[in-house]
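Problem 12. The chain below contains 72 residues. Write out its predicted structure in token notation.
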Amino acid sequence: MWEKIAYQLKKKGITKYRLAKLSGLSEETLTNIKLGRSKNPSFYTVYKIAKALDVSLETLIPDEWKIKGHRG
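Solution.
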């Protein structure tokens, strides 16, 4: 998941520190996701990140979490 978050951060010119402020999450939470310590962050955490980055949830969730054959 972090790869998708990092892509959005770079694309939008936002730092991890700024993302923490925008999302209301701690830098520690973001670091845990980045380092793989938090392999399954809560829906609310992912929602807050998506909202702060102004992207859909689907943009951030790993492909393996998506339902195969689902057309939306």
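Discussion. Residues 8 and 59 are 9 Å apart (CA to CA). Students who got a different answer should revisit the alignment rule from Section 12.3.
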